[in-house]
Amino acid sequence: MTVALRDWVMYGTAMVDEPRPSWGHAATNVGLRLLLLGTMVACTSTGSGHGGAPLPIDGPPAPAAVRDGIDADLDAQDMRSSLFANWDPFVDPEGLPVIYEWSIGTTPGSNDVMPWTGVGGATRGATEGIALPDQQVLYVSVRATDLAGNRSATSTSDGIKIGGFEPSTATPQASATEPSHYAAVERFGVTWTFAKPVLCGHFVNGDWWVVGPVDLVTIDPASRADNGRTRHGSMINPDPRQQRQGYDSSMFGEDATQRYDPASNVAFEVSRSKPLHLQPGSSLVSTISIPEAGQMPQLQSCAILTCLAEVPPADAFRPPYCGADKSCRWRAGSLDLTRLARVEGVAGVPDLRELLAHFERPWLDHQSGWSGRYLHPRDNMPDYGRDVADLVGQAALVLQLELPDTRKHALAVQLTQLGIDLYGIVASGGHFAADGGSGGGRKFPVLLAGTLLQDPAMLQLAREQKLAFAEDAQTFYVAETAPGVVNQGQGGYGVEDLGLAEWGNRHADDARLDQKPWTADPYRRCCTANAWLGFVLAARIMGLREAWDHPALFDYVDRYAQIEAKGAWTRSWSPFVERMWDRHRSSY
User: Fold this and answer.
1) Is the pLDDT of residue 59 over 50?
2) Which of 54, 289, 330, 424 could form a disulfide with 231 if both were Cys (CB 3.0 to 4.6 A apart)?
3) How far apart are alpha carbons 556 and 560 in whole angstroms?
């Protein structure tokens, strides 16, 4: 197997393309280590970036900060079924990738609750099948090992008390807060202050609307230049066809200067003497930057304020933040939850509260390709497309379980809102490029929203714009593309492969990257179909294959699940999804 160093870095979920990858699970341990070592051997054997010379090997990786919780450090949690942790990258002195282990104990540095467990290159961990002791402070420890076997010192979190508080299980509803006049409103750390009190209220997903036109005199945190960098920017109706942005001038690494557009940052130096005039038909997307420049993602959070010409219906969804159409035509009262199934559950069902927390904040996703990950707010959404697809798949399957509609409703609302936003991105000319594992998981929420809302425009877009979605653009049937020519002469396919459901890294755009050998392209196994099983199975259960209108995807995922070994992370990134697949695929 020959891969470039950039492929190794993506595959190993280390730095460069994925500095904060998705959750590591105990099941990823041995297989990931072997695959990473094999890929690194391939890198060094080709001499990529080193002229064939041996890579220098010296000291161990440097330890880094460890936090309790999904993102920001938590001091307590009520939940006893799972414990989450995340940590900064442990940097190797030679700049080489590392693999991590983590443990949990009742004292700093101990491992009496969970022994040392490998998570590969992931800089996050989530427990599975461990009963957490109630009213006990637990400590997470992390260590890293480079590929020469040098192990770092251990870093330990400051501790988290189990049984500390009860997180909310409900989605804020517009009916719970009647429209009123406000001088300022706040959402997810962003505060918008108006020149005078104005009529505001909540959409059904909890986001704010305001009847305009209005003048904003402050947006906090403020956007201003500081040591040559502009942070905390805002954009109005961002255009997904544009690769420039106005959120943070340090975004996109070496391309930051070319891809920052000061004119797009409508929040810059907003004040009473320089108010922002917000007109009806505007979605104001305001962001909070990560303090340090050069991060991926570069944003910590974002929130959306929608300016309307009149008060919307009490159960209205927020219109998409892309595009100028802010008509409130989608309503929660129209959701047809009878389209959701009621199938038997399996072990390890995700906690509904945890899932809801992943979807309650807006996903800022309007820039395509792998570099769009700079845009994904750390507090709001997964960084990498594989993890987006896996999370969507888990939520999609939970909605199909034997649960009363009252328990499904909040999650259905938030997934529908996500589908509305993704629909708005594609309807405005955007797409989710087939580029390794970056673009997956965005089509199912559009189909779900279109189905639950009985909206033909959404369903039509999902069919007609199928190549705007990475999983469709990457899957195909091997075909004779000219007399005697198979697959445009690319990928090493022959007549014996005609009709085979296949995958290509960028097949729709560049079939030259297609490769017939199963292990030739590491993205096939690390970051694509292993995260697609959940939403593909959910689409089958809901009877959405015809609406999806791309049978190659379904046939390829079937083939993939048959080839990859059960229980391996390369078969399914989520053990819950794999159990659901094995339990229900034969029935659908």
Assistant:
1) yes
2) 289
3) 6
